[in-house]
Write a structure and sequence with these properties.
single chain, 9-stranded mixed beta sheet, 12 helices, 36% helix, 17% strand, globular, AB hydrolase-1 domain-containing protein, AB_hydrolase_fold, Meta-cleavage_hydrolase, AB_hydrolase_1
Length: 307
């Protein structure tokens, strides 16, 4: 049987490369944790041993032992705002964001990572939590020289994005979240895990089966949400919740509740005739809303953004 997702990847790779991105792998810690990215071709660090090019069919390079994070380069006057697209459970980066990369790459420096355990991103760690993902992603972005940026997170990627914003306020300036709970408590009791039907919090947060996904969704929609106390008040400039009006996984009422708890810096916009996969179901409308938001929040850094 043909795997339709795998079958479309050669075309997606061609289109993403045509949009000006190149695939690279970042050695996060020198101990086997690596994250694969699509990055702007003119932003690839050429002389840093922590970053290596990905050549289809070529053997993997040896991991570097250099664990020192390079300092962020000073911002240049003509630098374009950076946008990081963080995927969810269903598929890796460019499959999830296939309709957004080209639309954004004309005016922004777009970075599309594969979270750990997706695509070519791997780690010997058994930690599957959004917090671990966020720390590794932040370290990789810094090694790529990414400074303050906008982060767009879908589903599980939304949880990772909020964790990263909380822990790295100098890196994440704006957030767009779709189809996600913003965060869940990292510590879940053994009794709760047994009741849900999973063996560990790692299995819950990164499910590998339909049963596991249902378990995650059940706790995500019925458990009291945890919201970082300082996240939106002290650091983030603005948050956009961009929702499918007919999302049957994380419904619009949940999004309204999150907006109320996150406060005045948060804007909720819904898209009609769209469900959980809003960015794939109605990409034109989603892209227009996303570009309008990015243009408004980055106006001070890029006075004349074209849409």
């Amino acid at each position: 049987m043909v795997n339709l997702v795998e079958a479309q990847k050669p075309l997606l790779h061609f289109l993403v490369r045509r949009a000006g991105l190149r695939q690279h792998t970042v050695d996060v810690d020198g101990a086997g944790t690596v994250i694969t990215f699509w990055v702007p071709k003119d932003k690839v660090p050429k002389e840093k041993p922590t970053v290596r090019d990905v050549t289809p069919g070529a053997p993997a390079a040896e991991a570097t032992t250099d664990k020192k994070l390079p300092p962020l380069p000073p911002a240049k006057k003509n630098d374009r705002p950076a946008v990081v697209l963080v995927h969810g459970f269903a598929a890796e980066g460019i499959v999830t964001w296939q309709f957004q990369v080209g639309a954004l790459a004309k005016h922004y420096d777009v970075y599309v990572p594969d979270l750990l355990y997706f695509g070519g991103s791997t780690s010997p760690s058994t930690d599957r939590s959004p917090g671990f993902q966020a720390e590794c992603l932040a370290a990789a972005l810094r090694k790529l020289g990414v400074g303050p940026c906008a982060v767009v997170g879908f589903s599980y990627g939304g949880m990772v994005s909020f964790k990263m914003a909380e822990a790295h306020p100098d890196l994440v300036r704006w957030l767009v979240v779709s189809g996600s709970v913003l965060a869940m408590t990292d510590s879940i009791s053994e009794a709760s895990l047994e009741r849900i039907g999973v063996a560990s919090s790692a299995e819950l947060l990164l499910p590998e089966s339909v049963k596991g996904l249902k378990a995650l969704l059940s706790i995500a929609t019925h458990r009291k949400l945890w919201f970082p106390d300082r996240l939106h008040r002290d650091y983030l400039e603005k948050i956009l919740l961009l929702w499918g009006e007919n999302d049957n996984i994380f419904n619009i009422e949940l999004a309204k509740t999150m907006k109320e708890q996150l406060g005045e810096k948060t804007v909720l916009q819904s898209i009609s005739k769209a469900g959980h996969l809003v960015h794939l179901e109605r990409p034109c409308v989603y892209n227009q809303r996303l570009k309008e938001f990015l243009a408004s929040v980055t106006a001070t850094e890029n006075p004349n953004p074209k849409q």
